[in-house]
Design a protein that fits this description.
- Chain A is built from 3 helices and 4 strands, in the order ββββααα.
- Chain A has helices spanning 42-46, 58-73, 77-88, and strands spanning 7-8, 14-15, 20-23, 29-31.
- In chain A, the strands form 2 sheets. A two-stranded antiparallel ribbon of chain A has the order 1-2. Chain A has a two-stranded antiparallel sheet with strand order 3-4.
- Chain A is globular, with a radius of gyration of 17 Å.
- Chain B is of the alpha+beta class and 242 residues long.
- Helices cover 26% and strands 36% of the residues of chain B.
- Chain B is built from 6 helices and 8 strands; from the N terminus they run ααβαααβββββββα.
- In chain B, strands 1, 2, 3, 4, 5, 6, 7 and 8 form an 8-stranded antiparallel beta sheet that branches.
- The radius of gyration of chain B is 22 Å and the shape is flat.
- Residues 236-242 of chain B have low confidence and may be disordered.
- The chains are: A alpha+beta (122), B alpha+beta (242).
- The interface between A and B is large, with 32 and 39 residues.
- Chain B: This is Transposase.
Chain lengths: 122, 242
């Protein structure tokens, strides 16, 4: 059974990891605690506009806007990209809950076929 | 006629909610599940209580509830969030300091100045990763009461106010946590202090003049609270939160 891939936390990002009971329309496995009455994950449910802070899902909907705003205030694109990569990794079920996906070992960001082995220290 | 039904409805609200209505203060430490009950109770207020005298303080909805929602996301189910909120405003007795008279020239007859210090919010949360986050918001209000007399002997007085808001955030890390200075400095309006030791303490402070609008206040508070979290790489955060 796939673990629940919902991003939890606000400042301290985490993954739920409980056993999932359904799959959201976005493809993410979701546990019983995080599933919306309509079968949606918190992010998809928040995308339907929870402007009211009294709603239990408000903080999850507000989180992305907060990271965008604070990244601009601090002129720190890394702050937002950390959150963004964390959020995107939820859809990669084979990453073993690693942040940043597969960009590290096999040169995922190399352009032109560089595999990182042809660099020479000067 | 005497708001009996409304009064009965208020008595069914959560005790913290009732305290915000009657005393306009709250000082309580609760786990996230109990805070959810408090917020659920507060959500019923607008539909139930129509009497203007018993409405919730504005900062309950604009600051307190969003802040509780945000902090409860980072607190473990057995963790706690402590809130001390004094939403009576800066005019209540005890908050005003001594007054003094300023030099004047005609037609002003007298200017009296005094300051009121209103520490209206203090929050302490024990987070999932073992760190402790403390937030405080303090308003410092300058009052100037001006009394002037026009050539026909007519007296006029008016009181002017100027509010400066100070927001502090302090995160005490668990022992042995890696601390890394962020690549970019914070904005110039945020001052940062880092105290190394057995438990590293990262503090950030902001002074805003004039005080932001009520609806924007939570954004500024979270902006100050951001800085201590930039000092710990995400890998040191707790990953799974089941």
């Amino acid at each position: 059974m796939n673990p629940c891939a919902v991003t939890t936390g606000f400042f301290l990002l985490g993954r739920c990891g409980r056993p999932s009971v359904t799959v959201c329309r976005c493809g993410r496995p979701v546990c019983a605690e995080h599933v919306d009455p309509q079968g949606l994950c918190p992010e998809c449910a928040a995308a339907q506009a929870y402007a009211d802070p009294f709603h239990p899902g408000w903080a999850r909907g507000y989180r992305r806007r907060y990271y965008e705003q604070s990244s601009g205030q601090y002129s720190d694109p890394l702050w937002y990209s950390q959150f963004d990569s964390y959020d995107r990794d939820q859809f990669d079920t084979d990453d073993g809950f690693d942040v940043g996906g597969d960009t590290g070992d096999d040169g995922g960001f190399d352009v032109g076929g560089d595999d990182g082995n042809d660099w020479v220290d000067s | 006629m005497f708001w009996r039904k409304t009064r009965a409805a208020i008595e069914r609200f959560h005790p913290v909610h009732q305290g915000l209505i009657w005393q306009r203060t709250a000082s309580v430490t609760l786990p996230p599940a109990e805070w959810n009950a408090v917020v659920a109770s507060l959500a019923q207020h607008e539909g139930t209580v129509k009497r203007r005298k018993w409405r919730l303080p504005d900062r309950t909805v604009t600051v307190l509830v969003p802040l509780i929602r945000v902090l409860c996301e980072d607190v473990a189910p057995d963790g706690v969030v402590g809130v001390t909120a004094d939403l009576r405003g800066p005019k209540v007795p005890g908050k005003a300091g001594p007054s003094r008279e300023l030099p004047v020239r005609r037609p002003i007859r007298k200017i009296t100045e005094w300051f009121a210090l209103d520490p209206w919010l203090a929050v302490r949360a024990v987070l999932r990763d073992g760190s402790v986050l403390e937030l405080t918001v303090t308003d410092r209000v300058r009052y100037r009461k001006v009394h002037k007399v026009n050539p026909r002997g007519k007296h006029k007085t008016k009181t002017k106010t100027k509010t400066v808001q100070r927001v502090t955030a302090r995160r005490t890390l668990p022992p042995g946590t890696d601390v890394r200075q962020p690549d970019t400095p914070p904005p110039p309006w945020i001052a940062v202090r880092v105290k190394s030791g057995k438990r590293t303490v990262i503090g950030s402070t902001m002074k805003l003049a004039p005080a932001p609008a009520e609806v924007d206040m939570v954004q500024w508070i979270l902006a100050v609270a951001t800085e201590p979290f930039r000092w710990t790489p995400p890998a040191t955060s707790v990953r799974r939160t089941a």
